[in-house]
Design brief:
The chain has five helices and seven strands. It has 167 residues and is α+β, with helices and mostly antiparallel strands. It has a single domain, classed as Gcn5-related N-acetyltransferase (GNAT) (Aminopeptidase, 3-Layer(aba) Sandwich), CATH 3.40.630. Strand 6 and strand 7 form a beta hairpin. This is GNAT family N-acetyltransferase.
Length: 167
C-alpha cells in the first residue's frame, strides 16, 4: 500500500531513514551518526514538512504486517518548473521489478509532480557509483542532463543529475 507520509509517522520514518543510511550511505547527504543524534523534535519536523505545500513524501507499507518497505520524497525546486526527487529508498527484500514497490512509489511522486501547475520535469541526483539506481531511472525515462555536483560527503566524488520531462 502506498500512502502519503504524515506528521504522525515520524517514528516509522525515523526507523526507515536509519535503515537507509546504514544500507546505502553513498545515496544520501546525511550520515547515520548525524541522524542518530537528532532529537525527536527534528524527526517530527521532517515528517511535518512532507505535508507542507510544495513538498511530499510517499511510503510503501506492507498490508499484512505494517512493515515499511520504502519511501520517496519530492519538493518543488527553487526553479518552480522542476520537482526534485530525493531520499529514495527501498528495503533490500522489496527491491526489483517483481516486487513493484519502486514503480508504485515513483508513480505516486510523478502523479504529484504532474499536479504542480508549474512543473515541467522531475529532477534527481544519483551518485556516480550507483549504477543500479541509474539504470532504474533510465528505464523509467530519466536521462542524464550532463550536469553533476560534488557529492556533499566526499567532494572527490560526484552526483549525476538526471531528469524526466513531464510534458
Amino acid at each position: 500500500m502506498i500512502h502519503r507520509l504524515r506528521a504522525e509517522d515520524w517514528r516509522e520514518y525515523r526507523a526507515l531513514r536509519l535503515e537507509m543510511l546504514e544500507d546505502t550511505p553513498l545515496a544520501y547527504l546525511e550520515t547515520l551518526e548525524h541522524a542518530l543524534a537528532q532529537p525527536e523534535s527534528d524527526w517530527r519536523a521532517r515528517t511535518a514538512r512532507a505535508e507542507q505545500p510544495g513538498s511530499t513524501a510517499y511510503v510503501a507499507v506492507e498490508r499484512a504486517t505494517g512493515r515499511w518497505l520504502g519511501a520517496m520524497n519530492a519538493f518543488v525546486a527553487a526553479d518552480p518548473t522542476r520537482v526534485m526527487l530525493v531520499s529514495v529508498y527501498i528495503t533490500p527484500d522489496a527491491r526489483g521489478r517483481a516486487a513493484g514497490v519502486t514503480d508504485l512509489l515513483l508513480d505516486a511522486v510523478i502523479a504529484w509532480a504532474r499536479d504542480r501547475p508549474t512543473a515541467r520535469a522531475v529532477r534527481l541526483e544519483v551518485h556516480e557509483d550507483n549504477p543500479r539506481a541509474r539504470a532504474y531511472y533510465e528505464r523509467r525515462g530519466f536521462v542524464l542532463t550532463g550536469r553533476s555536483v560534488p557529492y556533499a560527503l566526499d567532494r572527490s566524488q560526484k552526483d549525476l543529475e538526471m531528469e524526466l520531462p513531464l510534458v
